[in-house]
Write a structure and sequence with these properties.
Layout lengths: L40 E6 L5 H9 L2 H16 L14 E7 L5 E5 L6 E7 H5 L6 H17 L9 H14 L19 H15 L3 H8 L7 H9 L3 H15 L8 H50 L8
Parallel strand pairs: 1-2, 2-4
Antiparallel strand pairs: 3-4
Helix pairs in contact: 2-4, 4-5, 5-6
């Protein structure tokens, strides 16, 4: 007779590991994100797609990468990123508008507010650029105009020549200076464009990396006062700095270098375009002044009528 089967042995209960107290529990340490520059929305508008300048523009550069690169170039030249970036103008969007017009290019705020910028770039100008210089000139103009979207202007009191000189300094530092540009110390320091751009390059090399950053930062939030502005930064009046710059050029033998015929032609075309642009600005200012004067006169008339209406009649008429 066979033995009765034995009962199965029950499996042991699993042993749970002892729970850690909250003091023993450690959460993973996440590194702080590195400060980064703001990234505005980038937009494109072209008013005449079959214009010769349009095909040259699109065959010379990709608008998206060209504008993104211009933003990076400008911000890295004029600023250091922080966690808040409150020291940088709050530009939220930049729209590039390609259209037939006189001049080269200009930058303006939009009807929404000044945090939205528009760069107007002349298709007529693009169409006449020397083929060997098309890409560098187009990208150079974009960098110049992008500076106007991000620079400070001393509450609109900074000299126009300094504003334009800062823009060409950034273009120069990016290696986008055209072959006809030259260093010169005649005239005034604030003649603008490359004339002032090269002066700022000298300031940077003389007083150290980041000196032009300081110039731009000092234009933030208060009016420009030339006497204290430059002396506060570099210990000298700007006139003294300009003389020192001239001496340096003479020592280096770089002043008054002759240009080639092709470079002279390009300079003439740029000068003509800038003259057209200045005329346009002057005309717009005249219209604005006329409009402002008319509004002031209307306010004065309204005030006089209100005064006449509120004036009490003489006692003998009461």
């Amino acid at each position: 007779m066979s033995a009765a089967p034995s009962e199965p042995t029950p499996s042991p209960l699993p042993i749970r590991p002892a729970s850690r107290s909250s003091s023993q529990t450690t959460s993973p340490i996440r590194p702080h994100p590195k400060p980064a520059f703001p990234k505005p929305k980038l937009l494109l508008e072209i008013t005449e797609l079959n214009h010769p300048g349009a095909s040259i523009f699109f065959s010379s550069c990709d608008p998206s990468s060209a504008l993104s690169s211009a933003v990076t170039t400008v911000l890295s030249t004029l600023y250091h990123p922080t966690s808040t970036n409150t020291h940088i103008p709050p530009t939220r969007s930049v729209k590039l508008i390609l259209r037939p017009m006189d001049g080269v290019a200009y930058t303006t705020g939009t009807a929404i507010d000044d945090d939205h910028k528009e760069i107007h770039f002349s298709l007529n100008y693009i169409a006449q650029i020397d083929p060997s210089l098309q890409k560098s000139e187009i990208v150079g103009v974009l960098v110049h105009e992008m500076v106007h979207c991000w620079q400070w202007a001393a509450l609109s009191t900074a000299p126009k020549g300094l504003i334009e000189g800062l823009a060409d300094f950034v273009r120069l530092k990016a290696g986008l200076d055209p072959p006809h540009w030259k260093k010169e110390a005649d005239g005034n320091w604030d003649a603008g464009y490359q004339h002032t751009g090269y002066f700022l390059e000298w300031v940077e090399s003389t007083f150290g990396e980041g000196s032009v950053k300081k110039v731009n930062e000092r234009l933030k939030g208060k009016k420009y006062k030339e006497g204290e502005f430059w002396k506060g930064l570099f210990g000298k009046e700007v006139g003294e700095l300009w003389k020192d710059y001239g001496k340096t050029l003479k020592e280096e033998g770089r002043e008054g270098v002759e240009m080639t015929d092709d470079e002279c032609v390009l300079v003439e075309r740029e000068d003509e375009a800038k003259e057209d642009e200045d005329k346009k600005v002057t005309k717009e200012q005249a219209h604005a002044e006329i409009k402002e004067k008319a509004m002031d006169e209307a306010k004065e008339d309204a005030a006089k009528k209100r005064e006449m209406k509120e004036r009490k009649p003489p006692s003998y008429l009461v």
